[in-house]
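Sequence in, structure out.
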Amino acid sequence: MRAAISRVIGEARQSLWLLSHQLESGIYRHSALIDEFRQHLLANRRLQVKLIVSEPALAIRQAESLVELSRRLPSRFEIREPDVPEHHFDQEVVIADRRAYFLREDSRSRVARCALADPAGAHRLCLRFEDHWQNSQPCMEFRRLGI
């Protein structure tokens, strides 16, 4: 899953949208992935990251490397959380430039889909992401960390 997410991140030039239940440590704490992500952000100055995390306190503990990256590049990250418990989710979605994506419907599952050039599939996920974005608010847990 880490390799698939890394490939999707590598496709992003303008936008990278992440929807994550808790930023699973097995993926987002991995130093090689975060190093690649950092290098990609630095090489693509226009790349903006939108992240919605359902369980921010847990995410901060599990994904220290990603949290640190967002602290170092705060102008590139916008981090939100669901505004009410009814809007919480249990998915892992990464969308790059509205054409590449990684999708895991259930964060406990080891089954996922990944496509590097599927604008139609990515469009459906973008609609889902935008709905979650509209039902979210700035993440206070991350704000306390200066992000």
